[in-house]
Amino acid sequence: MTSETGIASKGTRFAAWTALVLLTIWAVLPILWSLSASFKTPLTLYSEGFIPENPTLDNYGRVLSSEGFYQYLGNSLYLAITSTVLTLFVSVLAAYGFARYAFAWRHVLLLFILVPRILPRASLIIPLYDVIARLDLLDTYTVLIVTYTATAVPMATWILIGFFQAVPRELEEAAAIDGASIWQRIWGIVVPISLPGMVTAGILSLREAWNEFPFVLAFTTSGDMRTLPFQLFAMRDNMGLTDWPLINAFTITTIIPILFLYLLFERQIVSGLTSGAVK
Amino acid sequence: MNTIQPSFRDRLAQGLTPYLLLFPAIAIVAGVLGYAVVRGILMSFYQIEVWEPGQPFVGLRNYRDLFGSDGFRNSLVISLIFVGATIVIGVLMSLVHALALNQIRFARSLFRAIALIPYLVSGVATAVMWRFLFTGDNAIVTQISGALGYSTVSWLADPTKALMVITMANVWFIAPFSTLILLAGLQTIDPELYAAADIDGASAPQKFVHITVPSIVPMLSLALMWLSFASFNMFDIILPLTGGGPGRSTEVLAVYMYQLAFRDLNYSTGAAVMIVILIINIALSAVFLRAAGRAQHDK
C-alpha cells in the first residue's frame, strides 16, 4: 500500500507542477509580451520574437518626454498619496471605535462599512457627476480625493478592526493610568503595534487610487487633470497608426511602482487580504 | 477603561467617544456613497435634461423605456454570458491554481506572489495589454491563429470572439484574488484528515471529493461571490478594450449605463440602469450569503 501511495503522490506532484507552470505563464505572459514590445521599435515590433534582438530604451525616453507626462504622474501620485493618508486617518479612528467599544447602534453603523463593498464604483458615477457638476466642482482634486477616500475607507476600516482587536488592552490600560489620552493611546500604542495592518490597508488604498479609472474619467474634462490610467486610455486608440512600443512602455511604466510596493510587502499584503476577505 | 472614579463628565465623554471616533468615516461613506445611491434612485424617477431647466417627475417611465429597449435587453444578455463564462472558467482555473500552490513545497511563496500580480495591474493597463495581444493584422494571437490555418481577421472585429477576449482578459484580471481565497481555505484543512484517509486506502479523487471540497465550501462560495460581483460590475477593462463593440456585442450593463449617460446624455435612464445594477448586486449577495449560511449549517 505504501508503494501505491508513493506512485499516486508522485503523479499528483507532477500534475501540480504542470498546472502551476502553465498557470504561472498565463499570469505573466501578457505583461512579459508587453514588456518585450516596449524594448522594440515600431519597425521590429512584429518581425522579432519574444526577446528583442536590439533592445532599446528609446520608448521609455519617449514616455518620459511625452507631453504632459509629469503632470499625469504628479496627479496620480498626489491623488494616491492624499487619499491614502486621509483614508488611513479616518479608518484608524473608526476601526478603534469598533474594536474597543460596545455601544448602541454598533451593528447598524458597522453596516455602513460592510454594505459599500457591494456598491460598484462605476454605478455611482451618474448621481455623483450630477451633483458635482451642479456644485461646479468638476475638474477639481477635491472631488477625486473625497470620492477615492470614500470608496477606500470601508475596506481599510475592516482590515484595521482585526488588527486593533489583537492589541492587548493591558498595554493601553497601563498607559491610561500614566495619563495618556485616548488620542495618544491610539497613535502612540495601537497604531505602531498594528503596523503590518497599516501597511496592508495603506497599500491597498494606494493601489485602488493609482489604478482608478471610472471616477477620473467621469469627473474630469480638462487634460491637466488626467491621471496615468486615463492618459493610457486616451492614447490606446489614436486614429491611424497605433504606436504600440510607446503604449507598451507607458503601460509598463504605470505598473512598475505598484508592483515594486507589492513585492516589497508581499507577505503582509497577502495575509491582510486573506483575513480581510475571509472574515 | 478608566480605573479611577469616573465623574459625570467623564462618563458622558466615554459614552460619546465611539460615536466621535466613527463620525468621520460614517460621514464620508454616507455622504458620498449613501448620497449617490439615494440621489440615483431619485434621478431614475425624473426626466433630467442637461440643457433644460425643470425636472418633471415621470414615475416609472424611465424604467418602462429601459425594459422596452433593445439596447438594455442586449446588455442584460451580454452581461449574463460574460459573468457566467467568467465564473465557470475563473473558478476552475483558480481552484486548480490554489490546489497546485497548496501541493508544492519548493518556492511556494514565490509562485504565490507571481499568481497575485494581475490583481495589482490596473484595469486600463490590463485592457491595453490584451488589446495589444489581439488587435490588428500583425497581433501575435492573429498571427498564431493564421499560422494554424484559422481566420486571420482580428479577434476584436468579430462579435463572438470579442466577447471571448473580454472574458479571458477578465478572468486573467480577477481570478488571482479568488485563487488567494481558495488557497487560504485549503491551508486550513487538517493534514491528519488526509493521513487518516490514506490509512483507509482512499484514492486521490476520493480524498478530493470527500475531504477537500467539503472543507472549502465556505471559501468556494466566497470565491464565487467575488468572481460574480467583480465581473458583473466590470467596467475598467471593457471600455478601453472594446468600448462595447464591435456593434454592441461586448456592451455589458456597466458600459451600457456609461454610454447612455455620458454619450447619449440620457442621465435619467442611465440612473435607472444604475438601480437595476444595484438590485442585481443585492440579490446576488443575498443568494450567496444564504448558500454560504446553509453550507455552514450542513457541516
Automatic annotation (TrEMBL), chain A:
<keyword id="KW-0813">Transport</keyword>
<dbReference type="Pfam" id="PF00528">
    <property type="entry name" value="BPD_transp_1"/>
</dbReference>
<dbReference type="InterPro" id="IPR035906">
    <property type="entry name" value="MetI-like_sf"/>
</dbReference>
<keyword id="KW-0812">Transmembrane</keyword>
<comment type="similarity">
    <text>Belongs to the binding-protein-dependent transport system permease family.</text>
</comment>
<dbReference type="InterPro" id="IPR000515">
    <property type="entry name" value="MetI-like"/>
</dbReference>
<keyword id="KW-1003">Cell membrane</keyword>
<feature type="transmembrane region" description="Helical">
    <location>
        <begin position="141"/>
        <end position="164"/>
    </location>
</feature>
<protein>
    <submittedName>
        <fullName>ABC-type glycerol-3-phosphate transport system permease component</fullName>
    </submittedName>
</protein>
<feature type="domain" description="ABC transmembrane type-1">
    <location>
        <begin position="73"/>
        <end position="265"/>
    </location>
</feature>
<feature type="transmembrane region" description="Helical">
    <location>
        <begin position="185"/>
        <end position="206"/>
    </location>
</feature>
<feature type="transmembrane region" description="Helical">
    <location>
        <begin position="108"/>
        <end position="129"/>
    </location>
</feature>
<dbReference type="InterPro" id="IPR050901">
    <property type="entry name" value="BP-dep_ABC_trans_perm"/>
</dbReference>
<keyword id="KW-0472">Membrane</keyword>
<feature type="transmembrane region" description="Helical">
    <location>
        <begin position="77"/>
        <end position="96"/>
    </location>
</feature>
<keyword id="KW-1133">Transmembrane helix</keyword>
<feature type="transmembrane region" description="Helical">
    <location>
        <begin position="246"/>
        <end position="265"/>
    </location>
</feature>
<feature type="transmembrane region" description="Helical">
    <location>
        <begin position="12"/>
        <end position="33"/>
    </location>
</feature>
UniProtKB/TrEMBL annotation, chain B:
<keyword id="KW-1133">Transmembrane helix</keyword>
<dbReference type="Pfam" id="PF00528">
    <property type="entry name" value="BPD_transp_1"/>
</dbReference>
<feature type="transmembrane region" description="Helical">
    <location>
        <begin position="113"/>
        <end position="133"/>
    </location>
</feature>
<feature type="transmembrane region" description="Helical">
    <location>
        <begin position="20"/>
        <end position="42"/>
    </location>
</feature>
<feature type="transmembrane region" description="Helical">
    <location>
        <begin position="270"/>
        <end position="289"/>
    </location>
</feature>
<comment type="similarity">
    <text>Belongs to the binding-protein-dependent transport system permease family.</text>
</comment>
<feature type="transmembrane region" description="Helical">
    <location>
        <begin position="209"/>
        <end position="230"/>
    </location>
</feature>
<feature type="transmembrane region" description="Helical">
    <location>
        <begin position="169"/>
        <end position="189"/>
    </location>
</feature>
<feature type="transmembrane region" description="Helical">
    <location>
        <begin position="76"/>
        <end position="101"/>
    </location>
</feature>
<keyword id="KW-0813">Transport</keyword>
<dbReference type="InterPro" id="IPR051393">
    <property type="entry name" value="ABC_transporter_permease"/>
</dbReference>
<protein>
    <submittedName>
        <fullName>ABC-type sugar transport system permease subunit</fullName>
    </submittedName>
</protein>
<keyword id="KW-0812">Transmembrane</keyword>
<keyword id="KW-1003">Cell membrane</keyword>
<dbReference type="InterPro" id="IPR000515">
    <property type="entry name" value="MetI-like"/>
</dbReference>
<feature type="domain" description="ABC transmembrane type-1">
    <location>
        <begin position="72"/>
        <end position="288"/>
    </location>
</feature>
<keyword id="KW-0762">Sugar transport</keyword>
<dbReference type="InterPro" id="IPR035906">
    <property type="entry name" value="MetI-like_sf"/>
</dbReference>
<keyword id="KW-0472">Membrane</keyword>
